[in-house]
Write a structure and sequence with these properties.
- The chain has six helices and 15 strands.
- The strands form four sheets. The protein has a six-stranded antiparallel beta sheet. A four-stranded antiparallel beta sheet has the order 5-6-4-9.
- It is about 30% helix and about 30% strand.
- The longest helix is centred in the N-terminal third of the chain and has 20 residues, at about 15-30.
- The protein folds into three domains: about 15-85, Ribosomal Protein S8, Chain: A, domain 1 (2-Layer Sandwich); about 85-155, Alpha-Beta Plaits; about 170-255, Structural Genomics Hypothetical 15.5 Kd Protein In mrcA-pckA Intergenic Region, Chain A (Roll), CATH 3.10.290.10.
- It starts with 12 loop residues before the first helix and ends with a strand.
- The protein is globular, with a radius of gyration of 20 Å.
C-alpha cells in the first residue's frame, strides 16, 4: 500500500524535490511504524506534509524553538506523547557586532551544512542565535569560529528557546493594472513591468516560499513575496479600483 498524495500543484522544482524527500521519511515511518524525524521545512512545505500525513493517518508533530518560527521539523510516529524539542534541534548563540542574517547563513553553508540542516536565525543588537539539527550542533559549535570578519564564540542556549525576531513594516498603497506577478513586483520595487518580467524569469522572485518564474501568475491577497536583493513584501489586499479600472492595493515591506 502506497501513501496517498498529489503534489502536482507545487510549482517550484526545488520545493517539490524537498517535499518528495520529506515524503520518503513519512513513508519510512508509515511502513516501519517507527519514529522518524525530518529536516527543516519552510511554511509551505510544512502545510503540504501536514496534509499528506492527515490523509494517510500518520501521527505527526511539528517542532520549532519558538512559537513563531518559520522553519520547523516534523516527527512522524513519535515514541512519546511528550516530545522534548531538545532531543531533535538546538539553539546556538554568539555575541556579534556587524553581522547580519545572510552572513550567518553563508557561514553555516560554508561549513558544509545544507539549507535543510538550518532552522531560523535571529539577529539582535548584540546577540545572534540560530537553530540546527542535533546531528550538527557539536560540529558547528567547535568549527564555526569566524563570520564575515568577526571572531565568534559559539555556545548552546540553555533554555533552547530562540528569541522572537521583531518585525517592522513600511506600509504602502499603490495602483496596478492587474494582479499579475510582474505588475505587483513592478509596483513594489518601482521597476518597469518589462524589467520586472525579466527579474521573475531569472527566478529571483518567490511567492509564498516558492520560486515563481511565470510573470503572468495571478497573486492572491495576503501573499508573501520575496524579491532577491530587494527584501520581503506582503500583498495585503485590494481596497478598490480607480476610474481607469486599475486595482488600488495595500502592501507592506519588511524593514
Amino acid at each position: 500500500m502506497k501513501l496517498e498524495y498529489n503534489i502536482d500543484f507545487v510549482e517550484d522544482k526545488y520545493v517539490k524535490a524537498n517535499i518528495k524527500k520529506a515524503i520518503s521519511l513519512l513513508e519510512k515511518s508509515f511502513y516501519t511504524r517507527k519514529e522518524v524525524p525530518s529536516f527543516f521545512l519552510n511554511p509551505f512545505e510544512i502545510s503540504v506534509l501536514n496534509d499528506i500525513a492527515k490523509i494517510n493517518n500518520i501521527e505527526i508533530v511539528f517542532l520549532s524553538c519558538n512559537e513563531s518560527s518559520e522553519r520547523q521539523i516534523f516527527v512522524a510516529n513519535p515514541y512519546s506523547n511528550e516530545i522534548n524539542t531538545k532531543d531533535y534541534i538546538s539553539v546556538l548563540k554568539f555575541k556579534k557586532n556587524n553581522i547580519k542574517h545572510p552572513d550567518v547563513l553563508g557561514a553555516l553553508l560554508n561549513l558544509g551544512l545544507e539549507r535543510n540542516d538550518i532552522g531560523d536565525i535571529y539577529v539582535g543588537d548584540e546577540i545572534c542565535e540560530f537553530v540546527v539539527l542535533n546531528k550538527d550542533k557539536d560540529f558547528v559549535k567547535f568549527n564555526l569560529s569566524k563570520i564575515k570578519n568577526e571572531r565568534v564564540n559559539i555556545d548552546f542556549k540553555k533554555d533552547n528557546i530562540l528569541n522572537l525576531q521583531k518585525i517592522d513594516y513600511i506600509e504602502n498603497r499603490g495602483f496596478v493594472s492587474s494582479l499579475r506577478l510582474d505588475n505587483i513586483v513592478s509596483e513594489f520595487i518601482n521597476l518597469s513591468r518589462s524589467k520586472a518580467k525579466i527579474l521573475i524569469q531569472r527566478r529571483s522572485v518567490k511567492v509564498n516560499y516558492q520560486i515563481i518564474d511565470n510573470p503572468s501568475k495571478i497573486i492572491d491577497e495576503n501573499s508573501l513575496i520575496s524579491i532577491r536583493k530587494e527584501g520581503r513584501f506582503i500583498f495585503d489586499k485590494v481596497i478598490g479600483k480607480s476610474k481607469k479600472d486599475n486595482y488600488h492595493i495595500e502592501y507592506r515591506k519588511y524593514k
